[in-house]
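> @MW can you paste both from yesterday?
MW: sure, first one:
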Amino acid sequence: MSERLRRSRRVLAVQSQLDKLAEWCLIDLQSQAVVLGDQQRGLVRFMSEESALAGIFSLTMMRRLQIIAERLAAIAAEQEVQRGRHLDERSRLRRAERIVGTLESEARRKVALLRLAESIEAALQHGSKASRKLTKPP
């Protein structure tokens, strides 16, 4: 195996890990958004119940809703950036896969050509011995 193929395989392994990392980061942001959305819905539900406690804590709950809304907006922006990173990592991964595939096929072709050359050489050597036997007088 050539050094170039070994290096390309290492790059492919690292690129695969980077792709997974970018995907996990995106999943983490999505789960954070789900948790904050649940908190937001819970606060809105609590405020809409018209209980005496809701009236007492309405200012605090409104501030909390505002903080949650701001955080959701920030997470949405982070998700867009992370989606772009993930797409970049995925394209780098595909490029590395293509390079490794090309190098592997080149290596297989070189091995096949070497075997063919060896077979031809062996056939020629065997053929020359057989032709000497035919040309010798009895």
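MW: second:
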Amino acid sequence: MTAPSELRRLFSLWRGLPVFDGAVRYRARLDRAELTLTTRHGAEATGHAECLPGRYRILVSVGYDMADAHATLLHEMAHVAAGWDRQFHTREWREVFASAAAQITGIQVAIPRGSHFAFHDLIRDCFATARRARRTA
């Protein structure tokens, strides 16, 4: 399970990723975002981003395994950075999510069409692979 302090540390660290720093609007939104951690576990574990005028909040459950918690945090950070209108998982969101994950894990992924759940799982697997590689290095 991921410790809350680890998610807070990563939230602060990841705000400085080149993909987020490269676009002023991305950085401005993330600088105003607050992170709220919940203690839901198992099937109730979730992530969510709320974007209200001038206020951005990212909610992440700490009941995930490490790779899923990292992917969920980044998934929601990409939502805040890319923003949304009527669609949540836009092409822009997918590009931000994939680019940020590649900058963190060193693994480039092709942006798939279709379900954002499958895309999230692909990014989660990148985090797990990168973690295993660091342990064996």
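> thanks! The mean pLDDT is 83.
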